């Protein structure tokens, strides 16, 4: 059986969406899967280098790897009225050139932040270190992502929601594309289609059996949050809308690409619809 290397983040939503494979609830007759967990910017950099067969990425990265990777429809995370948060110390005023910590150069929140705050002085840190960087005064502000948005120090407050920036830039009718999955184009098309089938099934099974899987993750100390925060977080980022992207979500991804191209983040325009794995091939082949 051919091995497929899958890289995902150690965040609760990514682990949740992959573990149905790890626990043997979903499998394939022709593929086996090995997984690696790392922070999202490290994964973005790995995708730029083409290290993994399947890699979790920030949607904002995709146009930079479109020639080497196709977009998967599954294991996606979108914000619906919520998302990353720009935080600062209470009772402070940010100057136009304030120093800010972001979680990575190619993250969706970094793209939207840099469009909204072109004069800010940006430094990049692991997302787990951003809150302390603001508290210590190393930076004036920081953008919190993942589970960090649920609970942060009382000395801090939200300056602005990245969701609000997205609404202003996108027109306000689309969900915020945050994280997705990319698949190496050099894989044989039948393997690519089977890979997407298995991963989609894993996300669907996880979502359908959320209570059972959540308990297993907590018992094994595989997530960084308690049961209540896990329930909230999965409700935000690992839900019915994570199983397979619909047309509205794909339009949102295209809008993100459009914004990035307009502001010089990408050398060329990329279309999300034409970047998907061509699953219709199997219908043509066996018709």
From TrEMBL:
Q: Name one GO biological process term.
A: menaquinone biosynthetic process
Q: Does the keyword Nucleus apply?
A: no
The cross-references to CDD domains, in alphabetical order and at most eight, read: PBP2_MqnD_like
* Listed EC numbers: 4.1.99.29
Pfam families for the chain: VitK2_biosynth
Query: InterPro entries, per this entry?
Result: Menaquinone_biosynth, MqnD
| UniProt keywords, alphabetically | Ligase, Lyase, Menaquinone biosynthesis
Q: In which pathway does it act?
A: Quinol/quinone metabolism; menaquinone biosynthesis
GO MF term (any one) = carbon-carbon lyase activity
Q: Which residues form the active site?
A: 146 (proton acceptor)
Reactions listed under catalytic activity: cyclic dehypoxanthinylfutalosinate = 1,4-dihydroxy-6-naphthoate + dihydroxyacetone
UniProt similarity note? Belongs to the MqnA/MqnD family. MqnD subfamily.
What role is this protein assigned? Catalyzes the conversion of cyclic dehypoxanthine futalosine (cyclic DHFL) into 1,4-dihydroxy-6-naphthoate, a step in the biosynthesis of menaquinone (MK, vitamin K2).
Q: What's this protein's name? A: 1,4-dihydroxy-6-naphtoate synthase
Q: Which organism is it from?
A: Campylobacter geochelonis
Q: Which gene is transcribed and translated to give this protein?
A: mqnD
